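Bug report (template v2)

What were you trying to do?
Predict the complex of my protein with adenosine monophosphate.

What happened?
Run completed; filing so the output is reviewed.

Input:
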Amino acid sequence: MKILHSTNEIIKIRQKIADQVGFVPTMGNLHVGHRSLITRSVHENKITVVSIFVNKLQFNKAEDFEKYPKTLEEDLKLCEEIGVDYVFIPQDDDIHRNKHFIVESNHPTLKMMEGKYRQGHFTGVLTVVLKLLQLAQPHKAYFGEKDYQQLLLVREMAKAFFLNCEIVPCETIRIASGVPYSSRNSRLNVEEMKIAEDVIKLFHGANDVEEKRELISKVKGITLEYLEAHEGREFIAFVIKGVRLIDNIKLN
Ligand code: AMP
């Protein structure tokens, strides 16, 4: 496994690769959810590139960016174990050496849920994902359904800009309690995690959005940001002690 630290390095290396390339963009602090994306890429492609880049542009709260957990040593061990070929760890001023261009979208998805509650978030996501896709030039790129709006927007962007890359959706991986794995979970203590479990159980168990909203709004210690149904899926965002968690499920 090789570690690439600069955009120049990845451009040079990528030019020499003739095999099929799979790519998994991450912000590090890798967990079981990330592991499933990376494992899938390793199985489906000859070469797998993982990027670890905490994208400042997509954080609407400075505190969230500063508190983002960093576990580079463990992350590299996990990538090596799974069989990753290249880990790309760029610096912020290298990725953003030219700040004059960003990806703005007026896609309807941007007006709702994450787009509504996190102003500027998707501009930050799309801008960085486009740069990473241009650098890695993958045949397939893997994104989690946990961040469903992100997955949808990335797929639409790839089509809009004629990127020669398949965006592969990957199912949400959950802890036994039903809570999706997330880097933010480590900021919750045992009691707070129990509250998250209660909310997720109601989100998955109750009948419809109205009943879910009624039951979840009674749970102590949370602020419910949204609970909405769109196109055969239900989506939730809630905050426990300043830690914001999201989930979504497909309706049958
Ligand atoms: P992040 O490091 O949070 O930017 O996530 C990197 C990728 O992993 C994104 O495509 C996420 O949607 C995906 N991901 C994060 N958590 C999970 C999970 N629990 N299950 C499946 N995919 C996930």
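What did the reviewer find?
The chain has a mean pLDDT of 97. The longest helix spans residues 121-136.
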